[in-house]
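REQUEST ID: PR-0412
SUBMITTED BY: lab tech R.K.
PRIORITY: routine
TASK: structure prediction, single protein chain
INPUT:
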Amino acid sequence: MAENGDQIGIGSSPEAPRGTLTARVDEKGRLKLPAAVAQYLELLGERKVFITTLNVSTALIYPISVWRQTEQLLQEPGEDADLRADVAMIANHYGEDVEVDGQGRVLVPTTLRRDLELEKDEVHLLCFKGRIEMLGSKVYAERLNKARTSLAEKVAALEKKGLR
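STATUS: complete
OUTPUT:
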């Protein structure tokens, strides 16, 4: 039984935290993971993560097993091999393997935190698609404002598709 009361059965994986969690990147570039995120990674058995970006606006923290799957996808041949190679170039330029330390902190790669303006700033974390998205305050506000635009119409369209 996990500490939060969720039972982890054989063959199942722990549920990722829901909602938006906040944290701060300190002056040394360390991100103290919120307890729910640190516990999630621990339940996954992942102490190693790959921190990068794919779009140069949102940082991504991948449990290493999820990054390996993503890396495999980016290496597949095909007619979009150039597209995959370009995305892999960005991911590798900004990315680094990082260990979660004993205090639940990760060191955000220097180039990544500077280019995405994450230094000494509050960041917003969302667990989505098997990874943890990290948005700086400015990008988070922009995405939230975009999401609010025409929200009633968005909800109505999705209700027709089964949203409850």
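NOTES: Confidence is low (pLDDT under 50) at residues 1-10.
REVIEWED BY: pending
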